[in-house]
Structure formats: structure tokens, C-alpha cells
């Protein structure tokens, strides 16, 4: 009902078109014009044809997800920010925009068709594989593990030596360290010290190399930072993030 609409809902056609692609600035800069607050939004392709009408508690975050998953359809948008709106009011605003677009075009936006899921389900990115220090063959067994470890930490800015893989850590300390670096949304490498086939003896050699008795271990720019407790403390006190996240 009309009473469910918050007073600050504006017609879809009256909202300015915000260009996200083919502008003077990259999309991640263009999106900064959009507030990360509750509201309704409409997404347009490069021909300015309406593709999807959305509703979100965090509009900018939702649009960033569309830019990542559906860049070919996410060229521009119109937004009506409705901070403080109730769920019913947001739904009322969305219905008003949908009715307006159907009246104007004679059809439901393609992304809102029944059964269409691509705008509301995120694509899962495949997890980055672990670095394997050898190819796991008998011929590779004679390789010097200390040399291989030194090479890998010199080559990559951030290396986490963990038990298990990034998608399946085998101890809570490894899980906690992975969670910290995942949260930073940076590129980092992992090596599973429990993988004796590809990393034979790595666990013991690493403990000697770092002069540190436990796993996980974190290396940043070739330097040993510490084990789980030290790195978690560096994360908590704000020391770690600036070392790996470049502004």
C-alpha cells in the first residue's frame, strides 16, 4: 500500500543515472558516489537498458558484487537511498520502481524474471591452490628443502605456512591466520607443511630456518613475522594491516 512507502521515495525516472563503466575513473572510484545504506537501485547495461531492479540494506556493496560477477551488464545505475527505512518500506519502494519500469517498457526487467538467479547469488571464486615446493616425484626428493623455502619467501610478498589448505585448514591456529589475511582481501600464498609428498621435510626445516617451534608461520616480504599468537596480536593492534594492504 502507499502508506508503506517512505516519504523520500522518488520515481525511478527522476533519479540521475550514475555511470560505473566507460567513465574517466575506474568503476571502484565511480561507485564511491553511491552510499552504502539501505535503498532501491536499478542496474543498466551499456545501452542503458534496465537489467535488474534491486533492494538492499547496503546498496554500494550489492552493486560492487554485481560489478564483479556481471560486469558486462552493470554499466550504470539509478539509486534511491532510504536510510532508516523499514523492510516493508524498502519492499514498497522496490514495488513502485518495478511497476514504473514495467509501465515504461512493457516487461519485467530481465534480471527480475521468475527463476532468474544470477543477480542474487554470488559466483564462488575457485580457491587459489597451495604452493607445492616439489612435483612430488621420487626424482624431486633430493632437492634442498632449505633452499626451496628461502626461494619461495623471497619470491612472494606474503607466505603463510599452515597445516592443511586455505579451504580446509587442519588446526584452529591455521584457520585464525587464514581468516585474518582473507579479511584483508589481499593476494597471499599458502604452503601446507603437512603435505609430505610435495613438501617433504618442510615442517622441520622451516622450524630451524625461522628458529620457531610451531606452525603456522607467516613471512612478509621475505621476513619471518612470527607464529599464530604474535601475528594475531599484530593484527589486533593495527600493526599488520599496513604491512600488507597498500593504500
TrEMBL record:
Pfam families per the UniProt record, alphabetical: Glutaredoxin
InterPro entries with a match to the protein in the record: Glutaredoxin, GRX_PICOT-like, Monothiol_GRX-rel, Thioredoxin-like_sf
Oxidoreductase recorded as keyword: no
Residues annotated as domain Glutaredoxin: 158-224
GO cellular component: mitochondrial matrix
GO molecular function: iron-sulfur cluster binding; metal ion binding
Alphabetically ordered keywords of this record: Iron, Iron-sulfur, Metal-binding
Iron listed as a keyword: yes
Similarity comment text for this entry: Belongs to the glutaredoxin family. CGFS subfamily.
Protein name as catalogued: Glutaredoxin domain-containing protein
Organism of origin: Pyramimonas obovata
Amino acid at each position: 500500500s502507499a502508506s508503506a512507502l517512505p516519504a523520500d521515495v522518488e520515481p525511478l525516472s527522476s533519479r540521475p543515472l550514475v555511470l560505473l563503466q566507460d567513465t574517466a575513473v575506474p568503476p571502484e572510484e565511480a561507485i564511491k558516489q553511491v552510499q552504502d545504506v539501505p535503498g532501491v537501485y536499478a542496474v543498466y547495461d551499456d545501452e542503458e537498458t534496465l537489467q535488474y531492479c534491486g533492494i538492499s540494506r547496503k546498496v554500494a556493496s550489492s552493486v560492487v558484487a554485481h560489478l564483479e560477477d556481471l560486469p558486462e551488464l552493470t554499466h550504470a545505475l539509478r539509486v534511491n537511498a532510504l536510510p532508516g527505512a523499514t523492510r516493508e518500506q524498502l519492499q514498497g519502494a522496490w514495488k513502485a520502481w518495478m511497476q514504473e519500469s514495467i509501465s515504461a517498457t512493457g516487461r519485467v526487467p530481465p534480471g527480475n524474471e521468475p527463476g532468474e538467479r544470477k543477480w542474487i547469488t554470488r559466483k564462488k571464486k575457485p580457491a587459489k591452490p597451495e604452493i607445492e615446493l616439489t612435483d612430488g616425484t621420487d626424482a624431486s626428493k633430493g632437492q634442498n628443502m632449505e633452499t626451496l623455502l628461502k626461494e619461495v619467501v623471497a619470491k612472494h610478498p606474503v607466505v603463510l605456512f599452515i597445516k592443511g589448505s586455505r579451504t580446509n585448514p587442519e588446526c584452529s591456529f591455521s584457520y585464525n591466520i587464514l581468516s585474518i589475511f582473507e579479511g584483508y582481501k589481499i593476494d597471499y600464498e599458502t604452503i601446507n607443511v603437512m603435505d609430505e609428498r610435495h613438501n617433504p621435510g618442510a615442517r622441520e626445516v622451516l622450524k630451524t630456518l625461522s628458529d620457531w617451534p610451531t606452525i603456522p608461520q607467516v613471512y612478509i616480504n621475505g621476513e619471518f613475522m612470527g607464529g599464530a599468537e604474535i601475528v594475531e596480536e599484530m593484527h589486533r593492534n593495527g600493526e599488520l594491516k599496513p604491512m600488507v594492504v597498500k593504500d
